[in-house]
Structures are given as C-alpha cells and as structure tokens.
Design a protein that fits this description.
By secondary structure, the protein is α+β, with helices and mostly antiparallel strands. The protein is built from five helices and nine strands. The protein starts with 5 loop residues before the first strand and ends with a helix.
C-alpha cells in the first residue's frame, strides 16, 4: 500500500471529513544515472556556495528568493509549514459545478482521498451526493507548500482530488489556430466522419502499452547481457503531399474496415 503524502480534512459546509491523500499515479519510466562513458563510473555533483566556496551539505540547504534589487529572502522548512493559509490542513470546498464546464487542459495531478476512521460516514455522504448530482466539487488546498485549485470527483467507490492549473498558467491557444481562410467541403467532412465511425469503440486502457519503454528495456537488457541489440522494424511511410483528401480518407476507411475485420477474426479464434 502506498504512503499518504498529506493529512487534513475536507471542509464542506459545517461537515468535516478527516482524510489522507495518496498519489493516484506512478511513473513507469526507466531511471538513468549520469556516468563516465569511458568506464561507467557514476558522476558525483558537488554543491558549492558561490560566496564562500565551501561545499554545502544537503541538510544546510535552504530556498532563497532574490528580489529585483538583489536582496535575498531565505526561507526555511518551517516557513513553508506555517504559511498563513487556511488551506494548509483543509480541503476547502468553494463551489459545485458540472464537470463538463472545466476544460480538461486545466487538470494536473490526481490524488486518491481516503477517509480516516471518524470520517467514513461523511465521506460516503459526499461521495454519493456527488455521484447522484453529477457534480464535482471545486476546492482549494495547499499541497507540497503551494496552494492549488482542484476538483474532487467520484471514481468508482473513492473520491479523487485532481489539482488544476491556475487560469494564468494556461497559455492562450489562438496562435495555434489554422487560418480562417482554410475551409473543407461537406464531402470531406462526411468521409472523415465515416473514418471516425470505423475507428470508434469502447475505451479499454489495458489494450494499450508503452512500446517505447518496452523497447528501451530490451536495449538495456541486451547491454547488460552483452548481446546484440535486436533490430527494429522501421516504418516505411515517407512524407506525402495529400491533394485529394476525400480519396485519402476513403482509403483510410477501407483500411480501418479491414483492420477491424482482422481483429474480430482473431478474437473469434481465441474464444
């Protein structure tokens, strides 16, 4: 079982729900060390003070904020722990909204919320009320020494808190929009919709895998065992200049139909 990263309470009206917060995801990427290419020796980095030239131990490090005039404010761990914020130990519900009102681009990290023994009943109450109403709770919380906006939503039998970016942290996307002069025909849209229909299905996360990580693990295993690295199958699709979008989409639809038929044939053989 993972360790909780934060303990506090959800404050919703006059109801308080003591909770523990757990990271909901974990990265599965490979971890590398910096080494000397010649002999594989690990590279050690020293922390040296630019003022006195002394090597600084990790325990003696602090966070410093340099003002525009050059003055330095040094903050200790206790300064972050005692911030004058009401949300340092509370998840404060500020609003209930429809989840569809929030642009997914604003979502950041997800966390599981577990009720303490004394908070089981109010936890179930809020969970069920959110589920029945189809709403999510917009909350404010201070995690890892920083206040964040977040939503609390229901996932199965648990509540998930997903932190969000502040509005000024989301870039204006207008620069990426295609020219207003570009248009497409009804025939092109129709063929695109047919392709979407052929590729539509029920999302099953277990059907997908991280091919890059698997290939990297193969390379690492080959290096460790001192064997030749297997050759990869290179894609042969070169750069093409598509002039007739309808023809290209029609070919895509036919390929999708053939792929789906092949998949259904494999499933029927397996069963």
């Amino acid at each position: 079982m993972p360790r909780s990263i934060w303990k506090g309470a959800i404050s919703f009206g006059l109801v308080t729900i003591p909770i523990k917060v757990y990271g909901a995801v974990e990265e599965k990427d490979l971890s590398f060390r910096q080494v000397h290419a010649k002999d594989g020796g690990r590279i050690r980095q020293k922390r040296v003070c630019e003022k006195c030239g002394e090597e600084v131990e990790f325990a003696d490090l602090a966070k410093g904020y340099e003002a525009a005039d050059g003055r330095m404010a040094i903050l200790e761990k206790s300064d972050f722990e005692n911030l004058p914020l009401a949300t340092t130990k509370a998840v404060e519900v500020v609003q209930f909204v429809d989840e569809g009102e929030i642009d997914p681009i604003a979502f950041d990290k997800p966390y599981y919320l577990e009720a303490e023994a004394t908070g089981q009943k109010p936890y179930v109450l809020l969970r069920n009320a959110l589920k029945e109403s189809g709403k999510v709770a917009v909350v404010k919380v201070a995690l890892r020494s920083r206040e964040a906006l977040a939503v609390v939503r229901v996932s199965g039998d648990v509540m998930v808190m997903q932190t969000m970016l502040w509005p000024d942290e989301v870039r204006d996307a207008s620069f990426a929009a295609p020219s207003a002069d570009v248009s497409v025909s009804k025939a092109e849209i129709g063929m695109a919709e047919m392709f979407i229909d052929q590729m539509s299905g029920t999302f099953a996360p277990d059907d997908f895998k991280d091919a890059y990580r698997e290939a990297l693990e193969t390379v690492v295993a080959s290096k460790l065992d001192g064997v030749e690295i297997p050759e990869s199958e290179q894609a042969t699709s070169g750069e093409t200049n598509v002039v007739d979008l309808v023809a290209a989409l029609r070919a895509s639809v036919e390929a999708a139909k053939a792929r789906r038929a092949d998949e259904e044939k494999k499933k029927s053989k397996a069963s």
